[in-house]
């Protein structure tokens, strides 16, 4: 059962949901950028510079969060996103390397 912020536990992360979240090129770019950062790096959602409205940005980050790819925490009036690197690497070894190698 996802926690109160909508983060699934490691056992609840499903390949289909991960692949569905990664089907969108903008969401892949977010994961690619987070994967290139040192582990534990937290960034605001707006720092990715996605060319979409605030509502669409919220939708993209919700899809990534609910798929189990990122963890989000509220920091004042913004949200910080971190990659769930250990969970992703444990469940889907090599996936992050594939995403990092993808040409944007």
Automatic annotation (TrEMBL):
<dbReference type="InterPro" id="IPR051081">
    <property type="entry name" value="HTH_MetalResp_TranReg"/>
</dbReference>
<protein>
    <submittedName>
        <fullName>Helix-turn-helix transcriptional regulator</fullName>
    </submittedName>
</protein>
<dbReference type="GO" id="GO:0003700">
    <property type="term" value="F:DNA-binding transcription factor activity"/>
</dbReference>
<dbReference type="InterPro" id="IPR036390">
    <property type="entry name" value="WH_DNA-bd_sf"/>
</dbReference>
<dbReference type="GO" id="GO:0003677">
    <property type="term" value="F:DNA binding"/>
</dbReference>
<dbReference type="Pfam" id="PF12840">
    <property type="entry name" value="HTH_20"/>
</dbReference>
<dbReference type="InterPro" id="IPR001845">
    <property type="entry name" value="HTH_ArsR_DNA-bd_dom"/>
</dbReference>
<keyword id="KW-0805">Transcription regulation</keyword>
<feature type="domain" description="HTH arsR-type">
    <location>
        <begin position="7"/>
        <end position="103"/>
    </location>
</feature>
<keyword id="KW-0238">DNA-binding</keyword>
<dbReference type="InterPro" id="IPR011991">
    <property type="entry name" value="ArsR-like_HTH"/>
</dbReference>
<dbReference type="InterPro" id="IPR036388">
    <property type="entry name" value="WH-like_DNA-bd_sf"/>
</dbReference>
<keyword id="KW-0804">Transcription</keyword>
